[in-house]
Write a structure and sequence with these properties.
Elements (H helix, E strand, L loop, with lengths): L9 H127 L8
Keywords: Coiled coil
Length: 144
């Protein structure tokens, strides 16, 4: 069935035409706004992804800072240990120097001791020789 014919006055047709033009503009504006909203939604999604990535990187960096602080503390402990060991090594070197000096002194004393042993042997032999020499001229008196 064909649509019924409506007799409208020119003024009413003009109003309807203006209303249609207005609605068409409004629909165009709504479509434009929808397009803008869709673009904004996509941008929000992209920004959320970027934000999540930045959060992940920030967490990683914060963990690295904590790790570096721990490493710094460990390095300070190692430095203190090295300083202590350096002092200990210095003390050992001083003791080693003293020991070397004492070893040299012991060597010298051994040499002196050996020399004195030789002199003592010489002197004992000399005393024995002198005693024998002095007895050579002794007169032995005996009774028969």
């Amino acid at each position: 069935m064909p649509p019924p014919k409506i007799n409208l006055a020119a003024e009413e047709l003009e109003d309807i035409k203006r209303s249609l033009d207005f609605l068409t503009e409004e629909i165009s504006d709504v479509k434009l706004q929808q397009k803008t909203i869709l673009e904004l939604v996509e941008e929000v999604k992209a920004l959320r992804i970027q934000n999540a990535e930045k959060d992940r990187r920030l967490d990683y960096m914060e963990n690295r800072v904590v790790d570096l602080e721990q490493y710094t503390e460990e390095l300070e402990d190692i430095k203190r240990s090295l300083d202590f060991l350096t002092e200990e090594i210095s003390d050992v070197k001083l003791q080693q120097k003293t020991i070397l000096e004492l070893v040299e002194e012991v060597k010298a004393l051994r040499i002196q001791n050996a020399e004195k042993d030789r002199r003592l042997d010489y002197m004992e032999n000399r005393v024995v020789d002198l005693e024998q020499y002095s007895r050579m001229n002794d007169i032995i008196l005996g009774s028969t």
